[in-house]
Amino acid sequence: MNKDIFGEAIKDFYNKKHQEDIVVQAPDFDDDIIPVSYLFRNYSEMPKIEQKALELAFGEVLDVGCGAGSHSLFLSEEKKLKVHAIDISEGAIEICKKRGIINANVQDIFDLKKTQYDTLLFLMNGSGIIGKLGSIDRFFLHIKNLLKPNGQILIDSSDISYLFAEDDGSFWVDASAAYYGEMQYKLKYKNLESDWFDWLYVDYNTLQNAANANGFICELLLEGENNDFLAKLTMASDIL
Prior knowledge:
The chain is α/β, with parallel strands linked by helices. It contains 6 helices and 12 strands. A hairpin with a 4-residue loop joins strand 11 and strand 12. Helix 1 packs parallel to helix 4. The longest helix has 10 residues. The radius of gyration is 18 Å and the shape is globular.
């Protein structure tokens, strides 16, 4: 994204300057919105999938795509864990630091090296950063290097096959087309507009198969009310 949409919105909300929503556009769907206040929610306001992930987090934690830092704040203040919060948004990281997250950096996960963690957190449709299904092996190969022995990856996603359901309840997608969970989005906020970017929603079976192929054990921990789920990934070599 060529403009820091989330960063500008997060800064405005934190500084009480603006109350406009972030608009999310997709080529074949109606516009959706993200209320900026949602990025500042506390633990009691989070969905059960996020609460479960935070409960299970242990050791040194990497919070990927931390946004305004709500997850990192809970882990550091309530669970007293050592947390490293990263996001590609400069504005988001600026506000994370103002909210008290000491170890917060502008960082692309794929550029992060030579550091390992006990828990990697990918929340709020965390699989999205993979972009396309064809990039999932690259994702697993990279995060494998970021995980300490006996560490875990907690990631959530959604099975969006329901978007392609027929009136009779049957499911249809073009088998010759790209994987149905590959989406493209554009963000708008005030007079700012991002470029189109790729975002991946992956169903659990596809995630599990890809994880197994790359040496991970994948466990389904919790299913939400909107076809979403939380999964835990651990290295198969850790149990040998």
